[in-house]
């Protein structure tokens, strides 16, 4: 890269603080809080997210007129507690995002490792697949698949998993290629280590930190994809609450009851924002040169 | 350069072939193709004709070949809802989608280039941090959240802007901004990084040393060189991002474009429309990518003048 060639820029890079700055600290705190709320949602949610109470429908949050005691974030059109639904929605959204990111990591990591270590037509084929995945607007493929196969959670998780595999594959391939010519790997090979052994023992450990960074960034992208699909009515299906579907369904009540959409929308943004800053911080710490795309 | 230029359409054709095949596999994986492709409300003869044309009662290979023949001759079946050829249905939607796309790209370029340059030049001051924060926010806020919040503020509370349709200039404001959010984030970040790359190079020091004004160094020598990369990003990334964004934004604002058509088709299970819509948008993205590659080759002297 050319930046490093310039002494001033190189010095700036070295001086880059490894400890979190204030904004990053706040973001990491929010991310931890959101993760804890998602994990403990069934314990801390004040109400059953599906329990309807038709007598206290469309009640506003605390501090407004007509506030219904106990429903801190108000209630929706069926009298369900918005706070409880948001917490459960957050739980489902995060669970789906995690599962999707893991699937992407497994697919992309395996293919990237194979492409990086086995050259020739294997590598060409895998990289052609990567190029195709980049060229095809994935949201459209997701629409097609979810419409055809139905929006079960299994299909949704698979779709979310396939959404970002190519990023892992690119990173792993590049790192594997770089590492495979390093002296310590030549030494291992000279000592008689087989290809599988070197891949598992010597290459994978070196990939942990770039993969952790990519995993975090993928998490935030998958949260956005899942919320978008659920918002459009093609992701998580009612009555199960997800942050995206709450915004989508609450749209009809926006003029009179904006809290139904604002609570989950705020949680989505808090989640993606804090996770992205977390990923950026991890990247700085790991000092991995990733292309930011 | 010739070899480079020849590779581009070949790659595009391979990608298109893959997309068509993936769509075929996806539509045939899920149950009976006669149900997926014909729907209700056809006359007996119409039904017969479609089954014969697309070989829907044949083996999978026969169906695939018939499907490819349909693709080549522009036959993609009838919409379940309109009962017209899906090609017609999609063609009517092209204009509004293109208008929204152009408006968004224009807004993106106008906002992102100055921001990206500022972010690179003042990278150490609060200006640079603010630009990066803005880019972060653009990535973090999904377009539907941006759209919903704008509707809440500007339509329901302030009563300034219309929500539904594409009738006037005012109708363009919110959809364009909602579409551009992510695009601005992407392009700003990229412009900034490209500028940092260029500004760190030796010829920039030379330009300063020979006494050029800072503005000329940054804009002419800096942006002039970073511009090539930036344009390639507009083509390569923006097309894909915009395709995804238009699906969401058009359906929120009832914009009569392809994105809204696709979402409606997906929800109402109008498979022929959905299938052709996906193929059409994918073709558009792949073609834009290929054109960008060609433009890049022509703009970059290292490729233009290479003998290979």
From TrEMBL, chain A:
CDD domains in UniProt: TM_PBP2 (cd06261)
Transmembrane residue ranges: 23-45, 92-114, 256-279
GO CC annotation: plasma membrane
GO biological process, one term: transmembrane transport
InterPro entries for this protein: BP-dependent_transpt_permease, MetI-like, MetI-like_sf
Domain ABC transmembrane type-1: start-end pairs: 90-279
UniProt entry keywords in alphabetical sequence: Cell membrane, Membrane, Transmembrane, Transmembrane helix, Transport
Organism superkingdom: Bacteria
Major location category of this protein: membrane
Compartmental location: Cell membrane
Family affiliation: Belongs to the binding-protein-dependent transport system permease family.
Name listed for the protein in its UniProt record: Peptide ABC transporter permease
The species this protein was found in: Seohaeicola zhoushanensis
Automatic annotation (TrEMBL), chain B:
Cellular-component GO terms for this entry: plasma membrane
Matching PANTHER family: DIPEPTIDE TRANSPORT SYSTEM PERMEASE PROTEIN DPPB-RELATED
Annotated transmembrane regions: 12-31, 100-122, 134-157, 169-187, 226-253, 273-299
Topology class, membrane: Multi-pass membrane protein
Superkingdom assignment: Bacteria
Similarity remark: Belongs to the binding-protein-dependent transport system permease family.
Compartments in which it is found: Cell membrane
The keyword Secreted is assigned to this record: no
Protein name: ABC transporter permease
Keyword check for Nucleotidyltransferase: no
GO terms classed as biological process: transmembrane transport
UniProt entry keywords in alphabetical sequence: Cell membrane, Membrane, Transmembrane, Transmembrane helix, Transport
InterPro entries: MetI-like (IPR000515), MetI-like_sf (IPR035906)
Domain ABC transmembrane type-1 stretches: 94-292
């Amino acid at each position: 890269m050319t930046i490093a060639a310039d002494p001033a820029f190189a010095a700036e890079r070295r001086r880059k603080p490894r400890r979190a700055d204030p904004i990053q600290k706040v973001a990491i705190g929010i991310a931890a809080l959101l993760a804890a709320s998602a994990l403990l949602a069934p314990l801390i949610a004040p109400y059953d997210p599906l329990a309807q109470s038709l007598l206290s429908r469309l009640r506003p949050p605390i501090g407004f007129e007509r506030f219904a005691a106990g429903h801190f974030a108000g209630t929706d059109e069926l009298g369900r507690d918005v706070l409880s639904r948001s917490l459960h929605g957050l739980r489902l959204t995060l669970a789906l995002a995690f599962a999707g990111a893991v699937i992407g990591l497994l697919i992309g990591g395996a293919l990237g490792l194979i492409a990086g270590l086995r050259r020739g037509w294997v590598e060409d084929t895998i990289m052609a697949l990567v190029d195709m995945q980049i060229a095809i607007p994935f949201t459209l493929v997701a629409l097609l698949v979810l419409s055809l196969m139905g929006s079960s959670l299994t299909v949704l998780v698979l779709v979310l998993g396939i959404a970002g595999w190519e990023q892992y594959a690119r990173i792993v391939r590049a790192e594997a290629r770089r590492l495979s010519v390093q002296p310590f790997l030549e030494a291992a090979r000279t000592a008689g280590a087989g290809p599988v052994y070197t891949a598992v023992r010597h290459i994978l450990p070196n990939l942990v930190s770039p993969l952790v960074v990519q995993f975090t960034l993928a998490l935030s992208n998958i949260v956005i994809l899942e919320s978008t699909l659920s918002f459009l009515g093609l992701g998580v299906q009612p009555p199960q609450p997800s942050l995206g579907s709450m915004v989508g369904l609450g749209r009809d009540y926006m003029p009179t009851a904006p809290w139904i959409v604002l609570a989950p929308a705020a949680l989505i943004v808090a989640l993606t924002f804090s996770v992205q800053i977390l990923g950026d911080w991890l990247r700085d710490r790991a000092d991995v040169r990733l292309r930011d795309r | 350069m010739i070899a480079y230029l020849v590779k581009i359409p070949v790659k595009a054709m391979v990608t298109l072939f893959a997309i068509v095949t993936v769509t075929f596999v996806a539509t045939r994986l899920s149950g009976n193709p006669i149900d997926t492709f014909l729907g209700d409300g056809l006359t007996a003869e119409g039904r017969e004709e479609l089954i014969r044309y697309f070989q829907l009662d044949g083996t999978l290979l026969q169906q695939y070949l018939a499907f490819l023949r349909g693709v080549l001759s522009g036959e993609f079946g009838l919409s379940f809802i309109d009962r017209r050829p899906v090609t017609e249905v999609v063609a009517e939607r092209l204009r509004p989608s293109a208008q929204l796309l152009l408006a968004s790209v224009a807004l993106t370029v106008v906002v992102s280039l100055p921001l990206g340059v500022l972010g690179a030049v003042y990278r150490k001051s609060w200006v640079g941090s603010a630009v990066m924060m803005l880019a972060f926010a653009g990535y973090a806020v999904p377009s539907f959240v941006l759209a919903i919040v704008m509707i809440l503020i500007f339509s329901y509370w302030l009563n300034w802007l219309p929500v539904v349709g594409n009738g006037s200039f005012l109708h363009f404001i919110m959809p364009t901004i909602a579409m551009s959010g992510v695009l601005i984030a992407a392009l700003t970040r990229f412009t900034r990084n490209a500028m940092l790359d260029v500004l760190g190079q030796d010829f920039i020091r030379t330009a300063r040393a020979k006494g050029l004004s800072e503005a000329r160094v940054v804009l002419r020598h800096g942006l002039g060189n970073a511009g090539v990369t930036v344009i390639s990003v507009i083509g390569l990334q923006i097309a894909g991002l915009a395709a995804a964004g238009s699906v969401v934004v058009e359906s929120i604002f009832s914009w009569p474009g392809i994105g809204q058509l696709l979402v409606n088709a997906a929800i109402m299970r109008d498979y022929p429309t959905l299938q052709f819509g996906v193929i059409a948008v994918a073709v558009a993205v792949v073609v834009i990518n290929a054109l960008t590659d060609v433009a890049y080759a022509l703009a970059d002297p290292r490729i233009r003048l290479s003998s290979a």
